[in-house]
Amino acid sequence: MTKQTKQMYEMYADIYKVLSNGKRLEVLNCIKDRERSVDDIAKEVGIRKANLSQHLALLRLNKLVTHRREGQKIFYKCIDPGIVEPCNVIEALRAKGII
């Protein structure tokens, strides 16, 4: 395993800041296993497309999602389903009554 540097920890913190929004976590969970259209994501997450676009732009900027255009539609997918794994860890701790 590589030795972690202060610069790496700062980068990790920046990513955690992006992930610290509940709606963005919901979006990532929605697209962790398969590609979805913006319309489908907005419907499942329950937010307007304008708000979703802002969240997706931030996720794209931080390279946490990929996207492709097909005609008028844009499809998004999470870069790796493991990105939402911290949510599963937290849920397991909550289920055990630890947090």
Please characterize this protein's 3D structure.
This protein is of the alpha+beta class and 99 residues long. It is built from five helices and three strands. It has one domain (7-95): Arc Repressor Mutant, subunit A (Orthogonal Bundle). The chain has helices at 6-19, 22-30, 38-45, 49-61, 85-95, and strands at 36-37, 65-70, 73-78. β2 (65-70) and β3 (73-78) form a beta hairpin. α2 (22-30) crosses α3. The two termini are 29 Å apart.
Counting copies of identical and different chains, the oligomeric state is single chain
Taking pLDDT < 50 over at least 5 consecutive residues as the criterion, the unreliable ranges are none
Shape: globular
The CATH superfamily bears the name Winged helix-like DNA-binding domain superfamily/Winged helix DNA-binding domain
- How many domains make up the 3D coordinates? 1
Q: End-to-end distance, in Å?
A: 29 Å
Brief synopsis:
This protein is an alpha+beta fold and 99 residues long.
Question: How is the topology of this model organized?
Answer:
Layout: H1 6-19, H2 22-30, E1 36-37, H3 38-45, H4 49-61, E2 65-70, E3 73-78, H5 85-95
Helix pairs in contact: 2-3
